[in-house]
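From the shared-data thread, chain only:
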Amino acid sequence: MDDVLLEAKQVRGSSALVEQPVFFDSADSTAPFDMDRWALHRNPSRYGRLVPGILVGATTKRISTVVATLVVFSALVGVYNDLATNGDPMLGFLPPVQLPLTPFELTAPVLGLLLVFRTDTANGRFDAGCDAVWEITSSLRSLVRKLVAWTGGSKSSEAERAAALDLIDACLLLHGWIMGSYLRGKPLKAAQEAQLLRIAAGSAPPVIATGNVAMTPHLAITALSLGVNRRLPSLTDQELVSIDEELGKVDKALGRCEKLLRAPIPLGYTRYSVRFLWLWLSLLPFALTANFAEFGAGTWWDDKPQPVLAVAMLFVGFVFLSIEDIAVQIEEPFSILPLVKCHKWLLIEVRRMRSLVQVDWQAPEAQAEGVVGDVE
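Structure, as tokens:
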């Protein structure tokens, strides 16, 4: 369990991508969102609890440099136009640089819709990634349940029960590999690849002519399917078909994960969203400077520095840039989902299943968790 906890801490520590946690649970708990946490989530105290995130949240930290650059640029634009309009007569040769506000008023709804569609599409991808990860976990959990139940009766020999335990270990190794590194673009080590194939096949790992092509989970799923058919002869045709259906669900869900990894939102959409947004924000200070030129006139603030333009751009830039940044971060869900927690939950469930038939769990658990600790 230490390897899994270490992995979880590494993922949590390196995941400065989103507001944490993605799956709401405490550091010492394995429970997902429960009723108490839903009550906290809906509690009106959220208006006080969450507001400080404006200053210290992960999104704020990520865009702070860009927003600061925009604010400094806006302040310089304001100072320049103020000097050009009302400054020292010696600087009267400076022409004011101002733009009409109407084009920005006309394009602001377009920019808002562009960001909304971008964020909505990214959120759909995040939701699809969550569904696929959950399906992989639940299908493998169901497969383990069937192996435990169908080989625990009197019709199965001791050799078959031992083979079923091997196949359960292979399922955990496969799940640990998928959650631990595969969905984050890291290959399986050669020793771990051989271990997975050996446990699934129950003998020396076969020689696979893959050349320079790395082994994929799809090949491991095929090895599991072959192992079930060859090593559990007492299973009926219906039971074999049911097990194969669970493996098929894992295969399809994994395919959806790979689609999300290899097919981002069309890059032209992302690039031109950023270009249009940055151009719009960069030119907006030239349009707002005339509106704020007379701010504070006739008041106690008349002869004092007036950072209104910079403050306005701070607010506008923070709103637009944070929305765009969140969309980019959740577009690829597997970098921010706590996948190791999914594996930890599966380990707990499988331990309980195996305890029902009074099997020795200690060695297989250590073996299965070792892969998760090594793949990263």
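Residues 63-97+265-331 form one domain.
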